[in-house]
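Tutorial handout. Part one gives the primary structure; part two gives the three-dimensional structure as tokens.
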Amino acid sequence: MHVDFAVPTDGDKLAEFLGILFSHDHEFAPNIEKQKAGLSMILSDDKAGKILVLKENGIIIGMVSLLVSVSTALGGRVAVLEDMFVDPAYRNRGCGGMLLDAAITFARESGFLRITLLTDFDNEGAQRFYNAHGFSVSHMIPLRILF
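Part two.
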């Protein structure tokens, strides 16, 4: 297994993964056209972010997106971790950890000052996973408005 950067031709497989991911989400629903549009925006513009993919024998088995933002508090670029997903057939084998560690290393080596992520409040497994990789609960709470 190895981690690589996604390329535009990976979009269909990544959209398939997002469909599975969003089918378990409290706030979002799968919509293949929207997922493909969002992925295309990231994959066609390095300034928007990067998508890392985990591959085994050339087949994508996991993904994680790092989207670029700027923190005025920290005075530099920060990343928002989105869409962490590992194919269910490959879970509990260290694949998620390998993918997340690669994303953290990439962010650190690229000069990002922080990675922020959201997970569902009742997804205790994900919270344990991210805690084990150095993430901690923020005292900030997410608020959003959808248009």
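Part three, for discussion. The chain has one domain: 2-132. The radius of gyration is 15 Å.
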